[in-house]
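Follow-up to my earlier ticket, as requested here are the two runs.
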Amino acid sequence: MIDKLIILALEEDLGLGDITSDNIFTENDEALAEITAKEDMVICGMNIARDVFNYVDPSLKFTPLKKDGDTVKKGETVLKLDGKTLSILRGERTALNFMQRMSGIATASKEFSETGKKYGVMIVDTRKSLPGMRKLDKYAVRCGGAKNHRMSLSDSVLIKDNHIAAAGGIAKAVEKIRAAIGHTPKIEVETTNIDEVKEALSSKADIIMLDNMTPAQVTQALKVINKAAIAEVSGGVNKNNLEDYCKTGADVISMGALTHSVPSKDLSLKITGYKEI
């Protein structure tokens, strides 16, 4: 899937060629280049950048100076390139696009996960990822120190509001899923109020999601759950209110903000030397 994504991204950017570079340089021109951080960040996407340039030109020399998950300061060089000028320029934007998005996610994940650790709360992502980019988005989350929720619908059971509405209630939905899948998979149920929390408990749900509740409502729900199930907070959690939710004592907080609205980090590629053969 990642190979297909890289190829698609390169095709999208190159089209029928690079009309600018192709009319300035020849296959004989060579250059040195560096990718540098223009702000502090957790770097991510180094291996993807390597694969991008390898697809463009396997003869390019790719020298990483950092690895995914490293903290990088503004002005630091993260990798160097040596080879055909045309190849460097053809891969530049695609490699940077991947690295900038992934580094943004990794940086936010580190910040949020460190807040969670202070209170013993696990911070996890959601499926609110860029279409086609989920594996890379979730990899970047792990590089920043947060954890992954389910990768896809097939990974684990999560009975959400629409399942409950269509099945006729939490108890009926849990009963049907438990009869179908057996005793080994955990069952998570989404709840929006105390009555639903109580119904999920009586249905012996393993994980109870407290969806779009305020910190005060979460605190009340946790008293009802009383450690009988894993309590996961989800919905409406962001950088500004994360600590308030952590203070409630929830076990897990899932944040769509880790992937759906994190700003990319700023990296740039610069030619540092050239030679014409």
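Run two:
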Amino acid sequence: MLKKFKHWYQRMFQVQDAKYQDVLDIKNHEVHIQNVAYFLAKAQFTDIPEMLGIERAVYGGKTPWDSAAFASELRRQTDRLYLVLRRHDRLLAFIGCTFNDDKSDAHITNIAVVPDFQNRGLGHFLIAIMIKKARQLGLSQVSLEVRLSNVRAQALYQDLGFEKAGIKKGYYFGDHEDAVDMILTTGETRDDDL
């Protein structure tokens, strides 16, 4: 009963555990992925136009999320983490994740890498960060949805330890394509984890 009250109070009054603050606080810094230097940072409102540009490049001119959706997500700093990767001041990739104590789930809401930088480990790196954060927060799983037709992304997720958990019929807005539900149980450790 006390645990339920604590969760309700935190949601109502935007109170964040010190643990969440510490784990979700990312300092902007240089990272190396496959021996190439990139700049990792928390996404800012000023990044939204470039994030939309990446979506257009990845999704054939469409933007599954609009600027209002991204802005809404970035405002919620107590249970969301959005990261961007840059090289020479060009935004190349981003990821978003929501962390839910009640469901013990870290849900990857969005991830995209500009086409000319795909297959260079950027997506793998960003997802591995979210898996690490979920483990640090003691959450039992990381989940995401991926288009049924996106077999390349599904292979990446499976390489990271995700398993197919079901199909969501007509999940995607617009074309109503089915989504594959994928889940990684965080108790499973892998040799290549961060």
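The only thing I checked on run two: The domain at 2-139 is CATH 3.40.630.30 (Aminopeptidase). Let me know what else you need.
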